[in-house]
Amino acid sequence: MRVRARNARVVALVAFACALARRVGSARAFYLPGVAPIDYERDDLVYIKVNKLTSTVTQLPYDYYALPYCKPDKIKHAAENLGEVLRGDRIENSLYSLEMRFDDRCKVQCRKQLSEEEAKTLKGMIKDEYRVQMILDNLPVGMTRYVEDEQGTRKKYERGYPVGFTTEDGKAYVNNHIRFTILYHKDQETDLSRIVGFECEPFSVDHKYKKWSDDKPLLKTCDPRQQVYVSEGSAPQEVKPGEEIVYTYDTLFKESDIRWASRWDTYLLMADDEIHWFSIINSMMIVLFLSVMTALIMLRTLHRDITVYNQLETAEETQEESGWKLVHGDVFRVPAHYTWLSVFAGTGVQLLCMTTVTIFFAVLGFLSPANRGGLMTAMVMIYVIMSFVNGFVSAFLFRMFKGQTWKMNAVKASLLYPGVVFTVGTVLNVLIWGQKSSGAIPFGTYFVLMFLWFGISVPLTFMGSYLGFKREPLEEPVRTNKIPRQIPPQPWYMHDAVAVLIGGVLPFGAVFIELFFILTSIWLQQFYYIFGFLALVFIILVVTCAEITVVMCYFQLCAEDYRWWWRSFLTSGAAAFYMFAYGIVYYHTTLVVTHKLTTFIYFSYMSVLSFGFFILTGTVGFLASLAFVRAIYGSVKID
């Protein structure tokens, strides 16, 4: 009856998790409490804000006004949060304006005569496939395209619009005419409107004008009075020194049935739900396989071994035993480099807590894309707060290993992962700053990050270390012999490198499909908002790391090899090796990179991510093995 009840609870839990993933994975938009819609009157004047220029080829964002676009008299920078600055967002005002629910065509911004340097810069960005990012009422601009699936034809947005295009003969043409289509939802009772869509269609037009006037220029190629509008057949505007470019735009309004609360659905449309469900099912099969193996070891083999061992009466009978029971006097021997093991474990718990809390808030909808930079800001702040946990766990393990210099241990715990990120980030920042990219972190933000690190994170680490070192260490269930036991020769498949590489396959196999979508959102400028799937995959990853490490640790102890401390960390942590290898495959098969600096940026970021993944997964495996070893040797009666 107990088994049936337990199985019923497991089935209910899986059903709840799947329902949660279906809700969040359906790309429904959630919004932060307090973010209210803006109601517009018919004659309200609304301004479009410009953001950065982005490219999936160079991965280097630039300020909008780095190109010879029309500038307002005074450029005003919007207040950006920490996450936006780290992502390279630079939101500024522009000359694009529109009157709510009033169609206006052929609006002229300005004319620009290209210098040789401006033409070179513009042509280079067109060649590197840069796209312009804009914002209207907190909605990013998008080009419309349609996808067909089982649910029929659905509309999907591509973020931004291209700066221009090139032809086969090497000529570059700039998109100097933008047709904006603003979708709005109208309240029939109050006649107020809410913007629910921001679409655009770029054109390249070699504008000709009858008479130029800064107040009211008259164009031949775009004149509403003569019913002359820009179309696909218009002569394009070539980019070359001395060429005069006239920038124009249309604003068209279209009433929509989309309600304000659902306006992000089109931006977050995911056409690959089946792939995510396949990933979940694949991962669950891995967990089921490992769970069966773990159950067989724990409930059958171990239970039988412990029962037989405890029934032995004479020393001769005890000596005839073999396997994991023979190394009871060495299994809790302090490992080599135990300081770094405690530091790695503490940092891993910090990363584990940060990831868990971040995904939890994301699933609840508090980290909506409507809150630009919110996800990045939340990750940084939660990581800083969780420094206390890092200090506590690392100091507790450090004392368990009979360490004394807890202050030095706290210094290492507070500097390990942030130090790696800071060093790599500083080198990249210098190189990006040399390219005059907006992706370079400003000095002011550097001081903020340094304050978060040394002003908050380090003190919290020391506070946690002090409390962790004061706690009584765990009592060892068996005594440790003074003389180490000789380890017998191991078969080839139990050698460290082979066992570690085998152990890392299954954790990576549980997450590699979801990893593809995460990398795509990072490097191909796409939204990622399927946190329900991500939460399930993360839970499966933790369970897989714990189970595979316990299984491999059991096999190691049965081979009378008691050096399980570091191997348990490396077994599940080896998934990071496969993650980095997959990053190499992703680079060569998905990305189109033409700059050496972009290659360096990509692999630097992948190294930092893989290192963090190594610490997180390794910690899960190490703590699971520690609990496993303490449990089995605590069940054995040893004089």
TrEMBL record:
Topological category with respect to the lipid bilayer? Multi-pass membrane protein
Q: Where in the cell is it found?
A: Endosome membrane; Golgi apparatus membrane
The entry's keywords: Endosome, Membrane, Signal, Transmembrane, Transmembrane helix
Which Pfam families has this protein been placed in? EMP70 (PF02990)
Read off the InterPro entries from this record. Answer: EMP70
Set out the biological process GO terms recorded for this chain's protein.
Answer: protein localization to membrane
> Which first-to-last residue range defines the signal peptide?
1-29
List membrane-spanning regions.
Answer: 277-299, 343-368, 380-401, 413-434, 446-469, 498-524, 530-557, 569-588, 600-633
One Gene Ontology term, aspect cellular component: endosome membrane
Superkingdom, taxonomy of origin:
Eukaryota
Protein family: Belongs to the nonaspanin (TM9SF) (TC 9.A.2) family.
This protein is called what?
Answer: Transmembrane 9 superfamily member
